[in-house]
Design brief:
The protein is mainly beta. The chain has 5 helices and 31 strands. The relative contact order is 0.14.
Length: 378
């Protein structure tokens, strides 16, 4: 959220902003906002709750504004609204023109309906949101450098295609987006509208990869890659966060800390059957394949490339498969069919069958546990 400015500059600015807000509140005296609980779900005529669990949430209203998080927990990140500009007209090039990306650069890799695209983090660190259409699906490719949270959302809300921008605000040190339809705020970490008309509506997530450009090219030699032709002048060759990614310090407040891991440990978060669970990325890389269960969901985590993992449902036509990685091959123990990294059985009795890929939430441990303090850990 603070990627436009140097961290040493932005922290004082954020503190000043909070002090000013507090001073204004004291001067207002008896004008403290009044918050009430709205027992009914959202009922605006042009908004339904078909895409999210609003009916199970406590929706509050303060001075006419609906919200599901305490408004005083929303913090200014430094830049104003759209001060970190989203990329709304992304330009791509083929691999042959991708000399500006090194094989070791980390990208968000996305493939929908045969359309493969890569979004380098060294570009996203300056923009945080790319509004795009991939394989005919409107998507928001999002990245919060403060939390190292990557996520891809479908940009469809109640049948309407919406566009997202950066609000300049944070919740739990995490990116708050806003939609340019209703101006509601959306938490990237929750994937949900947390203030405004759409409060409580959940966005659909789309499976993606966090992976090096060199490895993504191996998987998708026909991939396009986002270019630095963004319409904005930024120092894409530098990362304004410096050593923040490994330093234990957290700049903005979070409600819950947990010492089961280093705050900046990269984890893969899952929410299945009402249960939250986190896996270390390093553990998945070490084991290559992990078979586990989250509630009633049978999960297979697999990693064949550094910094990258994928997740699949092990339930195939009502039968729970057990997977292993032997001699460079992913196989199921029962039939010894060989499976590809895409979850396709490429040989053996189950040839031609696909596993269902499961979305995950990769990011720093401190961010995941701030949102989900009751999380289990593998």
């Amino acid at each position: 959220m603070i990627s436009i400015l140097n961290l040493k500059i932005i922290v004082p600015l954020a503190v000043i902003g909070i002090v000013v807000i507090a001073s204004v509140a004291m001067m207002l005296g008896d004008s403290t906002p009044q918050t009430t609980i709205v027992s009914e779900p959202i009922t605006e005529s042009n908004v339904t709750v078909s895409e999210g669990p609003a009916s199970t949430l406590t929706i509050m209203e303060t001075d006419g504004q609906k919200h599901i998080i305490p408004l005083d927990k929303i913090k200014g990140g430094g830049p104003p609204k759209d001060g970190i500009p989203s990329i709304d007209d992304p330009k791509f090039t083929e691999i042959s023109g991708s000399q500006f990306v090194s094989d070791s650069d980390v990208v968000i890799g996305l493939e929908i309906n045969g359309d493969a695209r890569a979004y380098p983090l060294f570009i996203l660190v300056w923009h945080e949101i790319v509004n795009d259409v991939v394989g005919g699906t409107p998507v928001a490719v999002t990245y919060c450098p403060l939390c190292y949270t990557n996520q891809v959302f479908e940009r469809i809300v109640n049948g309407n295609e919406v566009e997202f921008g950066t609000s300049g605000k944070l919740y739990q040190s995490n990116l708050l987006m806003y939609d340019r339809w209703t101006d509601s705020y959306w938490s990237q970490g929750l994937g949900m509208a947390v203030t405004g008309k759409l409060s409580g509506i959940q966005l659909k997530t789309i499976p993606f990869d966090v992976i090096t450009w060199g490895d993504w090219k191996k998987l998708h030699p026909d991939s396009l890659v986002l270019t630095t032709d963004t319409g904005h002048l930024r120092s894409y060759a530098t990362d304004p966060y410096g050593d923040y990614y490994t330093d234990p310090r957290i700049i903005f407040p979070v409600d819950n800390m947990d010492d089961r891991m280093h705050p900046k440990e990269i984890i893969l978060g899952f929410h299945e059957d009402g249960i939250y669970k986190a896996y270390k990325q390093n553990d998945v890389e070490l084991h290559n394949v992990i078979n586990d269960n989250i509630g009633e969901t049978s999960l297979m985590l697999v990693s064949l490339f550094p910094q990258n993992s994928r997740a699949f449902d092990r339930n195939l036509n009502g039968e729970i498969l057990q997977f292993q990685y032997v001699d460079g091959k992913i196989t199921d123990a029962k039939t010894e069919s060989v499976w590809s990294y895409d979850g396709l059985a490429i040989s053996g009795p189950l040839e031609g069958n696909y596993l269902t890929r499961i979305s995950m939430e990769p990011g720093f441990w401190f961010s995941w546990v701030a949102f989900h303090p009751d999380t289990a850990v593998w």
